[in-house]
Amino acid sequence: MVDCSRVWINHELYYHLAGMADPCHTARWIGSMEPAGEGTVGKIYKASLTLENIPKLRNYYIIKTQKVSERSNREKRIMKMISDDLLAERAPLLFPFLYLDYVCENTLYLVVQPAEISLGDVIAQNVQMSIEWWAETLYQLAKAVYYLEEKQINHNDLTFDNIMFQNQSEDYEDIALMIIDFGSAVHGHQPHNGLPPFVLGRDLNYFLYMLIYNGVPKGYFPEKLSNELFPLLMWENIKAYHNEDPYVYNLRRANILHHNWRTSGKHLSRWLAKYYPFVTERCSLDRLDKLYGAGIGAVVGDAFGMPIEFDHKHKQIIKKMHPSGQFEGLLSALNLPAGTFTDDTQMSLALIDAIMSEDRSLIPTAVAREFKKWADSDPIDIGTHTRKVFGAMQLDGSNWEQASYTAYQKKPKSAANGATMRVWPIPILHHYSHYSQVIDSAIKQAQVSHMNNDSVYAAVFVSCLIHRLINRAVLENAINDCLTLVKNYVSKELYKALSSAHLLKYKELNGGNGWIVHTMSVVMWALRNTDTFADAIIRSANVRGDTDTNASITGAIAGALYGFNAIPLAWLQDIDQYNEWNYWGNQQMTIERFKDKIATLAQCN
């Protein structure tokens, strides 16, 4: 009898994540995944697979197919190098597999992410793609090759059919590219069965020649981009065969045996980012600064406003974080340490947990389940409306619509700020996607507990604003764009707060008791009358009322505007100090742990 117990080297981790007792017996057999020829695992199309009931690991499906030739043993070793990094979230998400291994005699298991269409199929459709589309495609390809070259791996078969897209789209912002078929790959400086050793720049030198030579005459590759890229190519000084076709001859010459740093993944990705700046690096330092700024800015604002929440007597202007016991606010009796965050941050963390539990998808039932779990954990602070909704909700969140709508029917004019205070994970989740996805997810998460239009569309407005600022929009332009989105859905009072509250004087403001109009008046007044993160938080928190929520929303937007590095170090240190109230799950949420959650949510690990 064959021992099937040791499926992967990392089998215990796989068992845990996939929730299987034994993947060797529970994985589905997929006939269409049988190898097509020598050493290839086969191209992966959604149309060719029935994905229902196939075990999943993160966004990957666990399938099994026939054992293939020795050529795939080399492929397997290289795939394992990459998949170990993918598993540890150190590799870019540009490869459709996690791990390949032989188990149970003639069966191999593949953990694979389905793709929809190849570059070859896109070209065959004769659809004229924009120069932006091609620049983004080349940029993602260069980033993938950059990663491989850092490990001294040459793919050696970078053809149009081995470049896959997760979805078919003409919008360059929606492209998600992957490389498949490592059957001809080499690693390091040892040749293998006629394949030369690793050469820097070989893969893209060869690919770009094919693309330029075929694409420009046939009209599918932009001539402008071709003219700019062609000088980067390098040619081997070899003789042509008798009567050899010129294209085949140049193809052989382009399969270089000497390093060409100009067509290396590192150089080409930087070249494209320099001359085609719209191909912003998904996780550049600048973008990460804004992503961290949005999330951690919200946490800092929450903690900053915590001690004076609903303390309507204090007259002191606070300019740093304080323990709650120094004031007469809602949480003064608990004497919480400076830097303690409240329900604003806790609900945002529950939202992140819900999203990650569904493979980075926003499923309202999952959101309701995580919110219900949090509400039942006896949190230090919970809004009146929120308490009522989750008090009527089942543990699995399945009746969220009924619970939320019943609360709305009882008080249809009650427009609370709870859906907006927790919304900052949404623009981080969709930071590199079209804003329509931001709107859809913001509405879904809001309606789990809030059905009033002002409650819902204030969350949409804030999500839109953070998303635009992460993508480098000017504040005033972003505000105008987002106002246009919500204008026809919000009350006159809320629209006035969003559009012109910055014109109010301090004495005219009301920090409120949770009404979204009061909250957004304070937020917009603080944002548009300051020019630093710290000043925006100080102004927002010092308008007496719902100070933690007002400052938290202000912090999310200001953080996306000014970035994480603009947050005062002393405030970050207050969050980082030991605090039994700042636990989530079984660990204290430090700044670094918030960064980890944000990076994972944004796919920037």
Automatic annotation (TrEMBL):
Protein kinase domain span: 30-325
Matches recorded under SMART domains: S_TKc
InterPro entries: ADP-ribosylglycohydrolase (IPR050792), Kinase-like_dom_sf (IPR011009), Prot_kinase_dom (IPR000719), Ribosyl_crysJ1 (IPR005502), Ribosyl_crysJ1_sf (IPR036705), Tyr_kinase_AS (IPR008266)
Signal peptide: none
Alphabetic keyword roster: Hydrolase
Keyword hit for Hydrolase: yes
GO molecular function: ATP binding; hydrolase activity; protein kinase activity
PANTHER family membership: ADP-RIBOSYLGLYCOHYDROLASE, ADP-RIBOSYLHYDROLASE ARH3
Family the entry assigns: Belongs to the ADP-ribosylglycohydrolase family.
Protein's recorded name: Protein kinase domain-containing protein
